[in-house]
Here is the input.
Amino acid sequence: MLLVTGDTTDVQRSAASLPKRLACAGLDVLIVLVGLALLGIILTGGGTIHLAGSAIRARGVENPIWILTALVLLRYAAGESPLFGARCWPAAVVLQRGREFLVEFPSAAERRFRRPALTLAIVAVGVFCIRVFLAWSSPR
Here is the structure.
């Protein structure tokens, strides 16, 4: 879409950003497709697809999760337009929040470990739930 105003710089800027917007739209489509494939693998346990004489096996969720993560990060880094409604954060804000987290982490971790038996039980239950979910979603 070209913006037509009295200033030619708006038209040039809009035309120059067309490839970037198309790339972002393509990444959005890939994110949705990989997400749907991931959901299909989780719900069905995966399977094998024969395409053009090749067999494509999708039985585990590990690789699709890495692909989805890379696509989302790439799309987020590319984006002047929102990614599913979320605007990009300025790098300075992200770095500042990271620094604050690292400075506050020791005291926050210490507060959580005041009752080590309870903390250990919560971590063990969490790990067990994740392992059960992964075993259920991708049986071997």
